[in-house]
Amino acid sequence: MTEPAPRERNWDAYAAVIASLIGLLALVVSGYTAYLQRQQVRAQVWPRLEIANSNLNLKQFVGNQGLGPAKIVGVRVLVDGKPVKRWLEVMHRFEFTGNEGFAFSTLNGSVLPPGEVSEVFIAADSETSRAMFTEFLSEKKHKFSMSVCYCSVLDDCWLAMSDAPKLADRNVPIDRCPIPESEQFEN
Protein backbone atom coordinates (compact mmCIF):
# COMPACT_ATOMS: atom_id res chain seq x y z
CA MET A 1 0.00 0.00 0.00
CA THR A 2 1.24 3.36 -0.89
CA GLU A 3 0.80 6.29 1.37
CA PRO A 4 -1.39 9.12 0.11
CA ALA A 5 0.42 12.20 -0.98
CA PRO A 6 0.36 15.01 1.57
CA ARG A 7 -2.27 17.64 0.81
CA GLU A 8 -1.01 20.86 -0.46
CA ARG A 9 -2.02 23.94 1.44
CA ASN A 10 -3.88 26.49 -0.59
CA TRP A 11 -2.49 29.72 0.76
CA ASP A 12 -4.72 31.74 -1.54
CA ALA A 13 -7.81 30.27 0.12
CA TYR A 14 -6.46 31.15 3.59
CA ALA A 15 -5.71 34.67 2.48
CA ALA A 16 -9.23 35.04 1.04
CA VAL A 17 -10.83 33.87 4.33
CA ILE A 18 -8.63 36.20 6.38
CA ALA A 19 -9.38 39.13 4.04
CA SER A 20 -13.11 38.40 4.34
CA LEU A 21 -12.89 38.38 8.14
CA ILE A 22 -10.97 41.66 8.13
CA GLY A 23 -13.58 43.18 5.78
CA LEU A 24 -16.41 42.00 8.06
CA LEU A 25 -14.64 43.46 11.10
CA ALA A 26 -14.16 46.77 9.26
CA LEU A 27 -17.88 46.78 8.39
CA VAL A 28 -18.85 46.21 12.05
CA VAL A 29 -16.48 48.94 13.25
CA SER A 30 -17.83 51.32 10.59
CA GLY A 31 -21.44 50.60 11.62
CA TYR A 32 -20.63 51.15 15.29
CA THR A 33 -18.83 54.41 14.48
CA ALA A 34 -21.87 55.63 12.52
CA TYR A 35 -24.10 54.71 15.49
CA LEU A 36 -21.86 56.68 17.88
CA GLN A 37 -21.84 59.68 15.55
CA ARG A 38 -25.65 59.61 15.37
CA GLN A 39 -25.85 59.52 19.17
CA GLN A 40 -23.44 62.46 19.38
CA VAL A 41 -25.46 64.48 16.86
CA ARG A 42 -28.67 63.65 18.76
CA ALA A 43 -27.08 65.00 21.93
CA GLN A 44 -25.93 68.18 20.16
CA VAL A 45 -29.44 69.04 18.91
CA TRP A 46 -31.41 67.84 21.95
CA PRO A 47 -34.12 70.32 23.03
CA ARG A 48 -35.68 70.28 26.51
CA LEU A 49 -38.74 72.36 27.25
CA GLU A 50 -39.72 73.49 30.72
CA ILE A 51 -43.16 74.90 31.48
CA ALA A 52 -43.03 77.22 34.48
CA ASN A 53 -44.67 80.11 36.29
CA SER A 54 -43.09 83.16 37.82
CA ASN A 55 -44.69 84.46 41.00
CA LEU A 56 -42.39 87.47 40.95
CA ASN A 57 -43.04 88.60 37.36
CA LEU A 58 -46.56 87.13 37.21
CA LYS A 59 -46.20 85.16 34.01
CA GLN A 60 -46.32 81.67 32.64
CA PHE A 61 -43.61 80.72 30.20
CA VAL A 62 -42.07 77.88 28.24
CA GLY A 63 -38.29 77.80 28.04
CA ASN A 64 -35.93 75.67 25.98
CA GLN A 65 -33.12 74.53 28.27
CA GLY A 66 -31.72 72.08 25.73
CA LEU A 67 -28.97 72.35 23.15
CA GLY A 68 -31.07 72.41 19.97
CA PRO A 69 -34.22 74.07 18.68
CA ALA A 70 -37.62 72.68 19.69
CA LYS A 71 -40.24 72.34 16.95
CA ILE A 72 -43.56 72.64 18.78
CA VAL A 73 -46.07 70.32 17.14
CA GLY A 74 -48.92 70.40 19.64
CA VAL A 75 -50.17 72.25 22.71
CA ARG A 76 -52.99 71.32 25.08
CA VAL A 77 -54.31 73.58 27.83
CA LEU A 78 -56.65 72.12 30.45
CA VAL A 79 -58.73 73.94 33.04
CA ASP A 80 -60.16 71.56 35.63
CA GLY A 81 -59.21 68.66 33.35
CA LYS A 82 -61.18 69.98 30.35
CA PRO A 83 -59.45 71.21 27.18
CA VAL A 84 -59.72 74.85 26.13
CA LYS A 85 -58.83 76.35 22.75
CA ARG A 86 -57.99 80.00 23.49
CA TRP A 87 -56.64 82.18 26.29
CA LEU A 88 -59.93 84.08 26.49
CA GLU A 89 -61.67 80.78 27.24
CA VAL A 90 -59.13 80.17 30.04
CA MET A 91 -60.04 83.60 31.45
CA HIS A 92 -63.76 82.82 31.36
CA ARG A 93 -63.22 79.45 33.08
CA PHE A 94 -61.40 81.33 35.84
CA GLU A 95 -64.43 83.62 36.00
CA PHE A 96 -62.70 86.71 34.63
CA THR A 97 -64.00 88.92 31.87
CA GLY A 98 -60.82 89.13 29.87
CA ASN A 99 -60.65 92.88 30.41
CA GLU A 100 -58.30 92.56 33.39
CA GLY A 101 -55.33 93.20 31.13
CA PHE A 102 -53.17 90.30 30.03
CA ALA A 103 -50.74 89.54 27.26
CA PHE A 104 -50.79 86.19 25.50
CA SER A 105 -48.52 84.68 22.90
CA THR A 106 -48.88 81.80 20.48
CA LEU A 107 -46.76 78.72 21.02
CA ASN A 108 -48.38 76.06 18.84
CA GLY A 109 -46.53 75.57 15.55
CA SER A 110 -43.54 77.70 16.52
CA VAL A 111 -39.85 76.87 16.88
CA LEU A 112 -38.17 77.74 20.16
CA PRO A 113 -34.38 78.17 19.85
CA PRO A 114 -32.11 76.87 22.60
CA GLY A 115 -31.83 79.20 25.57
CA GLU A 116 -34.98 81.10 24.59
CA VAL A 117 -38.12 81.66 26.65
CA SER A 118 -41.60 82.21 25.28
CA GLU A 119 -43.82 84.10 27.70
CA VAL A 120 -47.23 82.65 26.94
CA PHE A 121 -49.43 84.31 29.59
CA ILE A 122 -48.39 87.58 31.25
CA ALA A 123 -50.16 89.82 33.73
CA ALA A 124 -50.43 93.51 32.84
CA ASP A 125 -49.13 96.26 35.09
CA SER A 126 -52.42 96.85 36.89
CA GLU A 127 -53.70 95.85 40.30
CA THR A 128 -56.68 93.95 38.80
CA SER A 129 -54.44 91.98 36.46
CA ARG A 130 -51.92 91.15 39.21
CA ALA A 131 -54.69 90.01 41.57
CA MET A 132 -56.23 87.78 38.90
CA PHE A 133 -52.89 86.26 37.93
CA THR A 134 -52.06 85.55 41.58
CA GLU A 135 -55.37 83.70 41.84
CA PHE A 136 -54.60 81.90 38.58
CA LEU A 137 -51.25 80.71 39.95
CA SER A 138 -52.69 79.64 43.31
CA GLU A 139 -55.15 77.25 41.62
CA LYS A 140 -57.51 77.55 44.61
CA LYS A 141 -60.67 77.66 42.46
CA HIS A 142 -59.52 75.98 39.26
CA LYS A 143 -56.67 73.74 38.16
CA PHE A 144 -54.64 74.80 35.12
CA SER A 145 -52.25 72.56 33.20
CA MET A 146 -50.38 72.72 29.91
CA SER A 147 -48.81 69.99 27.77
CA VAL A 148 -46.49 70.65 24.83
CA CYS A 149 -45.42 68.12 22.19
CA TYR A 150 -42.09 69.05 20.62
CA CYS A 151 -39.43 67.51 18.40
CA SER A 152 -35.75 67.96 17.64
CA VAL A 153 -34.45 68.61 14.13
CA LEU A 154 -33.85 64.83 13.91
CA ASP A 155 -37.56 64.21 14.68
CA ASP A 156 -36.97 62.74 18.13
CA CYS A 157 -40.04 63.89 20.08
CA TRP A 158 -41.08 64.52 23.69
CA LEU A 159 -44.10 65.62 25.69
CA ALA A 160 -43.53 68.35 28.29
CA MET A 161 -46.18 68.55 31.03
CA SER A 162 -46.69 71.26 33.61
CA ASP A 163 -48.63 69.01 35.98
CA ALA A 164 -46.42 65.91 36.15
CA PRO A 165 -46.19 64.75 39.78
CA LYS A 166 -42.40 64.38 39.71
CA LEU A 167 -39.93 66.74 38.07
CA ALA A 168 -38.27 63.80 36.31
CA ASP A 169 -41.61 62.98 34.58
CA ARG A 170 -42.15 66.45 33.11
CA ASN A 171 -40.51 65.48 29.81
CA VAL A 172 -41.20 62.03 28.38
CA PRO A 173 -40.09 60.65 25.01
CA ILE A 174 -42.94 59.95 22.56
CA ASP A 175 -43.27 58.39 19.10
CA ARG A 176 -46.00 60.81 18.05
CA CYS A 177 -47.94 63.61 19.73
CA PRO A 178 -50.75 62.13 21.89
CA ILE A 179 -52.78 65.36 21.83
CA PRO A 180 -55.78 64.86 19.52
CA GLU A 181 -56.59 67.56 16.97
CA SER A 182 -59.85 68.30 18.79
CA GLU A 183 -57.89 69.30 21.93
CA GLN A 184 -55.17 71.40 20.27
CA PHE A 185 -54.76 74.85 21.81
CA GLU A 186 -55.01 77.45 19.04
CA ASN A 187 -53.22 80.47 20.53
* Rg for CA atoms: 28 Å
Secondary structure class reads alpha+beta
- Cα(first) to Cα(last) distance is 99 Å
Main sheet record: 6 strands, antiparallel
Nearest-integer average pLDDT: 86
Helical content stands at: 25-40%
Question: What would the principal axes of the Cα set say about the shape?
Answer: rod-shaped
Number-wise, the strands total 10
Q: How many helices? A: 3
The proportion of residues in beta strands is 25-35%
> Which regions contain 5 or more consecutive residues with pLDDT less than 50?
none
What is the N-to-C succession of helices and strands? HEEEEHEEEHEEE
Structural summary, described in words:
It contains three helices and ten strands; from the N terminus they run H-E-E-E-E-H-E-E-E-H-E-E-E. The protein has helices at 11-44, 87-93, 127-138, and strands at 49-54, 59-64, 70-79, 82-84, 102-104, 111-112, 117-123, 144-151, 157-161, 171-174. Strands 3, 4, 6, 8, 9 and 10 form a six-stranded antiparallel β-sheet that branches. The chain has a four-stranded antiparallel β-sheet with strand order 1-2-7-5. A hairpin with a 2-residue loop joins strand 3 (70-79) and strand 4 (82-84).
Descriptive key words:
single chain, 187 residues, alpha+beta, six-stranded antiparallel beta sheet, four-stranded antiparallel beta sheet, 3 helices, 28% helix
Task: Outline the secondary-structure elements.
Elements: H1 11-44, E1 49-54, E2 59-64, E3 70-79, E4 82-84, H2 87-93, E5 102-104, E6 111-112, E7 117-123, H3 127-138, E8 144-151, E9 157-161, E10 171-174
Antiparallel strand pairs: 1-2, 2-7, 3-4, 3-6, 3-8, 5-7, 8-9, 9-10
